[in-house]
Amino acid sequence: MREILGRRLQRLRDRFQSLRPHPGRSGGTSALLDAALVCATTWQWPVLPGVGRSAADGARCACPDPDCVVPGAHPFDPGLLAATTDPRMVAWWWTNRPTAPVLMATGGAAPCAVSLPAGAAAHALVRLDAQGLRLGPVVATPTRWALLVAPYSLERLGELLYAKDHVPSSLRFHGEGGYLLLPPSAASSGGHVRWEREPRAERRPSGRRSAQGAAGAGGAGSLWLPEVEAVVDALVEASSGAPGGGSRLAY
Question: Which tens digits make up the pLDDT trace of 236-249?
Fold first, then answer.
């Protein structure tokens, strides 16, 4: 299965290589284009380019807001509704903007996510592993980690959180209408986004489709995603123990 996916991706890279505006650029297709194509074609995650940083000094966000709290790491033009799994559109975007961050539109058929401060997340993962809970992919920046979970509705999330005595402000939910910065994009707080735990395909049991997995390319595999209820208690507890409640930590 991986060999087939690898050949498909290589054909896409070969096809779009000739479209790149800078044929003298070393390294062939960019790592960001490769990552965006894998997300769109292998995992069927709708992606779009983030706004990126200002060309003037590289420190400020390219959006009009001088006080942007997530510089470079949010949608702007195109907007979030433009997110797609079409490899031709993905290639066109990153051919014209090869340094643009990779954003995934969360919710719908795509994964949702729960993010929390990095230190608290590391402790939460240890606890969840000790409980024997099977986790999915985990996205990490220098300041925050995000656990990908199965899609959930706002109503379902609201009921879940309503039952909690306390939900720390440092715990954030990326559901329908949200987005998540993906590797190997530059993080808004410095450094780069990486996979703490990479997405891995698995073969679904014959004759049925898992409701907890996003379909892999060609429908032959699935990506394991835990339900949000399975992880939220550990994440709430870990976030509550973060210094200052975690609310003052950077995005």
Answer: 989 886 654 443 33
In a 3-state reduction of DSSP, which class is residue 126?
helix
Q: Which residues contact 14 (CB under 8 A, 6 or more apart)?
A: none
pLDDT tens readout for residues 168-221 = 988 999 999 999 999 999 998 888 999 999 998 875 444 434 444 443 333 334
Between strands 144-149 and 112-117, the pairing is antiparallel
> For residue 216, which of 100, 146, 137, 115 has the smallest C-alpha distance?
137
What is each CA distance from 154 to 232, 236, 239, in whole angstroms? 15, 18, 21
Residue 10, Cβ density class (10 Å: 0-12 exposed, 13-18 middle, ≥19 buried): exposed
| Geometric angle at alpha carbon 171, from 170 and 174, rounded to 5° | 125
Rounded Cα–Cα distance for residues 212 and 31 (Å): 29
> What SS3 class is residue 174?
strand
